[in-house]
Write a structure and sequence with these properties.
Helix content is about 30%, strand content about 20%. It is α+β, with helices and mostly antiparallel strands. The chain has two domains: about 1-105, Ubiquitin-like (UB roll), CATH 3.10.20.70; about 120-435, Creatine Kinase, Chain A, domain 2 (2-Layer Sandwich). The strands form two sheets. Strands 7, 8, 9, 10, 11, 12, 13, 14, 15, 16 and 17 form an eleven-stranded mixed β-sheet that branches. Strands 1, 2, 3, 4, 5 and 6 form a six-stranded mixed β-sheet that branches. It is globular, with a radius of gyration of 22 Å. The relative contact order is 0.12.
Length: about 450
């Protein structure tokens, strides 16, 4: 990087922190200033970056920061292992940062730190490390979204008016977008495994090769930044809402495997589930419903859990069953778990942290493994249901000993308050759907 700055190929460094909603926030530094003043130490950013709603509004009630404490700064230390070029921004590199307390300790509520904590617990308690691959869905609309140009009939339209799942004859604008996205991610050192259109009009899915869980989530947040930037330049709008339209759902599927001493441990030598694999699945089934605000963070998230969809409605598991919450896929030593409860709107760090916390729970407590689902998992009436609403999820999360044991009471209180903020916002707003249904009928 010093060489690239010296010869003028790089003039800007972005120092970024993943926020609560899974977006990159931070500062643009002159590259020479970054090398001279920031790279060997740290920077400061307002702590409200990790204590705000999706609209970046300062919110009372967080212990981290408030008007009473003056909205002080937190320290951000560059993680130079994440330094990379971002080809969609000219002459720019990006580096992610660790959020620290005034005592230079890792900030427990920071999403990236929450994932690091769960990775560390798996290693310390069970000698395991995690490999992960992410599948990320989004929707593309023609035109740019503004407050005066909303979605709906006669307004923004999905890119494509039909089911293009696995299609290879894409509209020219969509083909150019996908090519530019693949090229940009390859140039950033995170080449995509594949990109394809999905069943929803304008729906696109990107997948990435397996790798360490933290790196997989770092790649995902970079991917989202690239999608939004390149879409805007193509006069498109990209959304990661879990249910952007009635009857359309977008997911963030987490493929996870556990390793010990360089060998995968979810399967036996015969290709069956090992005891470790069975305990991990049992932990996911039992604990994930208690952790929903970490992977289904807003009221729209729960509209994705719909009967007749490819999203789960119950906490079930099965072999290659896409209606199960935990889908066991792969063969032999390649057997791994695809966790499907997360919507596209999930913060990948928080979602992965919830999954690993649930696996830790299973390995620690060894709960009984429910029967495998071989039929339509949506009709598994005897299986635990996923929360139907954010309100239901919040109650379970706030009162969960499993959540508090995994993350600590302060972290649970932080994210419970964030969920309550979302609920309070929705209660104060009358949605268009209510007006359309009741305006002249009430």
């Amino acid at each position: 990087m010093r060489t690239a700055v010296g010869n003028g190929r790089i003039d800007t460094v972005i120092l970024a922190v993943p926020d609560l909603q899974g977006r990159l926030k931070g500062k643009r530094y002159g590259a020479r200033h970054f090398l001279e003043r920031v790279v060997g130490g740290d920077a400061e950013m307002c702590a409200y970056l990790l204590a705000t709603d999706v609209g970046m509004n300062p919110i009372d009630g967080f212990a981290l920061t408030s008007w009473e404490t003056g909205y002080a700064d937190l320290t951000v230390a560059p993680d130079l292992g994440t330094l990379r070029r971002v080809p969609w921004l000219p002459r720019t590199t990006m580096v992610l940062g660790h959020a620290l307390t005034p005592e230079d300790q890792p900030l427990a509520v920071a999403p990236r730190q929450m994932l690091l904590t769960q990775i560390g617990r798996l290693a310390a308690a069970h000698g395991l490390h995690v490999q992960a691959g992410l599948e990320s869905e989004s929707l593309l609309y023609e035109g740019r979204f503004t407050s005066t140009r909303e979605l709906g009939e006669g307004r923004l339209r999905p890119m494509g008016a039909m089911n293009l799942d696995y299609a290879l004859d894409h509209p020219p604008v969509l083909d150019r977008f996908m090519r530019r996205l693949q090229s940009a991610l390859a140039g950033a050192g995170s080449p995509m495994e594949a990109i394809k259109t999905e069943s929803g009009p304008g729906q696109v899915e990107g997948t990435f090769p397996y790798g360490p869980a933290l790196e997989a989530c770092d790649t995902h947040i970079l991917f989202k930044h690239a999608v939004r930037t390149l879409a805007s330049r193509a006069d498109l709008t990209a959304t990661y809402m879990a249910a952007p339209q009635t009857g359309v759902g977008s997911g963030l599927h987490l493929h996870v495997s556990l390793w010990r001493g360089g060998e995968p441990v979810l399967a036996t030598s015969d290709g069956d589930l090992s005891d470790t694999g069975r305990h991990a699945i049992a932990g996911l089934v039992q604990a994930l419903p208690q952790l929903a605000p970490l992977y289904a963070p807003n009221t729209n998230s729960y509209r994705r859990y719909a009967m007749g969809s490819f999203a789960p409605t119950h906490m079930t598991w099965g072999y290659d069953n896409r209606r199960c919450a935990v889908r066991v896929v792969g063969h032999g030593s390649g057997l791994h778990l695809e966790v499907r409860v997360q919507g596209a709107d999930a913060n990948a760090y928080l979602a992965m942290a919830a999954v690993l916390a649930a696996i830790n729970h299973g390995l620690d407590h060894k709960p009984p493994l429910p029967p495998v689902q071989t039929a339509n998992a949506h009709q598994a009436a005897d299986a635990p249901a996923l929360p139907l609403t954010l309100e239901e999820a919040l109650v379970a999360f706030h009162n969960s000993p499993t959540a508090k044991g995994a993350f600590g009471p302060e972290v649970v209180a932080h994210y419970a308050h964030l969920a309550q903020v979302e609920l309070d916002h929705q209660r104060a707003v009358v949605p268009d759907t209510e007006r359309e249904r009741w305006l002249v009928q009430a």
